[in-house]
Fold:
Amino acid sequence: MFSNWPVLMAGGQDAGGGGVFTLVWFGLIFVLMYLLLIRPQRKKQKEHEKLLNELKKGDKVVTSGGMFGVIFAIDEDKGRIVLKVGNDVKMEFLKSSIAARVDQ
Structure:
């Protein structure tokens, strides 16, 4: 009784190329999602990795939490950075929490 329900909804005619059209439509949606979401995110991630690899002692940076400081020491093994945030005040952060380098 309901086996040809989609055909009835389409005006009573069987759509001959509907499967190919659907496949092309999903392909176009995937390409659009890649161009709008995936590609820019990968580019941003690569830029952040490049920033982290180029950090050196004395760079002024800001963390993802909004803390400004100057790099005092870098521990590559543990993935941590020590920031000097004030006179005789040093704080330890994960290297990945550095959001950007600040122009001096």
